[in-house]
Amino acid sequence: MVCYNKECPYQRENEHCPAREGCAGYTEEVEALRSENEYLRMRLAEIRDKVDKMEAPEGFPSVYNHAYYEAKEEVRRIIK
């Protein structure tokens, strides 16, 4: 993270800033990341729900059902 305080001696990226907790730039960046993280968690939950509800399309040849369900399980594994 970068310190946005122009007078901060730790302004360069990846340097440990002992005053980070009191730094407004740091706090804003952390809040933005938390917000984004929460959005991504909600989006992932939506995707999981959609995958769980997926069924083979009507008229789908039963010969391919095994492959369909294997693909569905692979998608579940990836989103975990």
List the main descriptive attributes of the protein structure presented here:
rod-shaped, 80 residues, mainly alpha
> How is the main sheet built?
none
Give the total of domains.
1
* Poorly predicted runs: none
Strand and helix order: HH
Task: Please state the structural category.
Answer: mainly alpha
How far from one another are the termini?
27 Å
How big is the Rg? 23 Å
Instruction: Note the beta-strand portion.
Output: under 5%
Backbone shape: rod-shaped
* Tally of helical segments: 2
Oligomer: single chain
What would the average pLDDT be, to the nearest integer? 80
Task: Please bin the fraction of helical residues.
Answer: 55-70%
Give me the count of strands: 0
Topology overview:
Layout: H1 24-53, H2 65-79
Helix pairs in contact: 1-2
